[in-house]
Amino acid sequence: MKDLPTISQFQVFKNRKTILKNPLPFHRANFEKYGDIFRVRVGFRKAVVFTRNATIIKHILQKQHRKYQKSELQTVDLAKYIGHGILTSNGEHWRVHRRMVQPAFHKKKLQGLLGIMKQAIDSELKRIEPGTTQDVFPLMGDLAFQVVAQALFSRSDIQRNMKQLQDFTERNQKMLIKEMRQPYLKWWFKISGEIKKHLDLSEQGRDILNQIIEERLASRENKDDLLDMLLNATYEDGTHMPRRQLIDEVLILFTAGHETTANALGFTLFLLAKHPDIQNKVLREVENINMEVDDLMQCLSQLAYTKQCIEEALRLYPPAYVIDRTAIADDVVKGRKFPKNTLVLMSIYELHRSSAFWDSPEEFNPDRFDIALKKDYSNYYYPFGAGPRMCVGNNFAMYEMILTVAQIVKKFQISTDLRTVEVNPLISLKPVTVPLLFEQR
Fold this sequence. Notes:
The protein is of the alpha+beta class. Helix content is 54%, strand content 12%. It has helices spanning 9-14, 16-21, 24-34, 54-63, 72-82, 91-101, 107-125, 136-153, 159-181, 186-191, 194-219, 226-232, 243-274, 276-286, 296-301, 304-316, 348-351, 394-411, and strands at residues 6-7, 37-43, 46-51, 68-69, 132-135, 322-327, 331-333, 336-338, 343-347, 412-415, 423-425, 429-431, 435-440.
């Protein structure tokens, strides 16, 4: 590690305002200057390794994943706000609960949720007024929010409570970003009571979820939704999840499930609006598919090009733009020693835009994901992560995005005057604003 190019703590402090707003240009500048791997000093004898090297990333996420685990950025800092669920835990705790949650996202189970998903999507799209320009990002946020709420709880009468929960999680996320990007102010965040204020918001969110769970148990109804699947999941000894753990898993599915999908949809629709020829190609694919009467899973299988557009948008704007891991044992990657406790931040955003792997990497080109081309991008394409920690809801998210894009393009021609979309890298990569003109077809 000692011979790696190193960014001093002074340089970090000097660029603190830029980094707080958007660290991606800072990352890009240093990757271009120092190559595919460098270190950043973040404290006395503390440094973080940044890499966009495809071999190192594959090694850490897949080949030698047992030598690495999620860092304290997630297991401590993020977990204090959204609990110790499968997103924010390691080791045996993660393995046990991943096995319990996984069946809820089996393709056969998801097939039963497609109707709920489409109904929620159609309901939200009715809010779009033809001939108007709307910021599509909050619209997609509400849409993805309702899809997850319906899939989790099968209820449409909890919108007020869910809005509160959405507000709490967004405020806590912004607080966490301040803590992560301004580590030199953590002492102030604690003594000023700012952290406690946001922890109180987390508890209020838990109370909302606990009330919904209590109402489900009291009703004795079996809705066969995600909440029922989690309530019925058991450990090897036949016992069920403790209430606190159940709320942790629900909170993480709710938070991660709606946010990353909303982000990806915002970017996808912006790119389609900027490329009317590609949008028309999607239209030709979707206009002859009748989702009102046809089997929805079969419809999804016929929307290959629509899926390619989403895959390409995920390449350009991956929700998990950086993936963190900490070495729990000494390791050697490409002849370089990674000592135990090394914190590695892997830039998926940079890897997805590397000219070493992608032709014209800044260009929106869905054809690169045409299965007929038989190109294998698995060594440098990680929209949902990779290895055992790959996102458990990746199929759920993809189905939701395909249905949403198909329904929008079928109903509206979308366009925009926006030249480029400004990004807001929080826990996941968000678009700042995406004004689109919706014209009735």
